[in-house]
From TrEMBL, chain A:
Species annotation: Candidatus Electronema aureum
Gene3D superfamilies per the UniProt record, alphabetical: NAD(P)-binding Rossmann-like Domain
Protein name: Molybdopterin-synthase adenylyltransferase
Catalytic activity from the UniProt record: [molybdopterin-synthase sulfur-carrier protein]-C-terminal Gly-Gly + ATP + H(+) = [molybdopterin-synthase sulfur-carrier protein]-C-terminal Gly-Gly-AMP + diphosphate
SUPFAM superfamilies associated with the record: Activating enzymes of the ubiquitin-like proteins (SSF69572)
Family: Belongs to the HesA/MoeB/ThiF family.
EC number(s) recorded for this UniProt protein: 2.7.7.80
Ranges of residues in domain THIF-type NAD/FAD binding fold: 11-246
TrEMBL record, chain B:
One family name in Pfam for this protein: ThiS
Matches recorded under Gene3D superfamilies: 3.10.20.30
Record-linked SUPFAM superfamilies: MoaD/ThiS
NCBIfam families per the UniProt record, alphabetical: thiS
Name listed for the protein in its UniProt record: Thiamine biosynthesis protein ThiS
Amino acid sequence: MNLTDEQMDRYSRHLILKEVGPEGQIKLLQSRVLVVGTGGLGSPVSLYLAAAGVGTIGLVDADVVDISNLQRQIIHTTADLNRPKVESAEAKLKAINPEVKVEPWLLYLDASNIDNIIRQYDFVIDGTDNFATKFLINDACVLAGIPFSHGGILRFDGQTMTVLPGRTACYRCCFHEPPPAKSVPSCSQAGVLGAVAGMLGTIQAAEALKFITGAGTLLTDSLLSFDAKTMNFRRIILRKRPDCPVCGENPTIIELTDSEREACGM
Amino acid sequence: MEIRLNGEPRFINAANLTVAGLLEMEQVPSPEMVAVQIDGEIVHRCSYHDTMVGDSNQVDLLYFMAGG
């Protein structure tokens, strides 16, 4: 594959990065990334992936655009109210970069459909708003061997980690199991600063681009967390746990099951 | 004793302290909201009352965040 003159112009700022260059750009153009959730995190993630020339972007969301989304879900506009989020997002991604292929999945992921969907992609972004789906994505990606980025936000805080299944700590190595229902407030209950979604989502997008191009070192075996009130960022070193229920030596999770989805109201 | 809590030095005016006691001291509204890591090892949620925090331990409280 050779880059066209237009691609040389469009991606010129990537091409002059020695860690990306034409080789890295071609990898991006041939790559497939799945963004689960087209909300606060999925908005900046998918915008940056499309701008970067990720060849195929899958978008998963069964929701429609609500006016309370617009404070942070920057891919949607007031004119998109009541429109399916994946449709609204697809239009913006196409407008930024017409050569990107967008695959909309107008559904919620569950134990019966997730494996078939994630196996079609090279990297998965968790931009979901509930623990059930976050743990489902972790388990499905670990079992299928698909690398992914975990992301979570609440109030002024954000956290993210990148998981290379079988090689680095997974979400369950740290968080083990979903917290009991109602023990952790949701964003609709506790709020979230809109820009925090952008901060965290942009880190996730950068991780996806690094994974595909091979640039730098990934945010693996660690949890990056920040507090936007103080702008303190902290990287907590994690270990892949031998007793992890899904990626450990004697896993108890060997197939996927659904737990109740408690939406964060994102 | 002195521990490092979330990367910051913290003097604890007690000789014995469980993880549950620390969470209470830190006013964590519910122990289920956090994963607790001591010196790189995750403490299982059901042993917060039996696990002691010791001098110079590095304790990380990792909050669950579902928002996206």
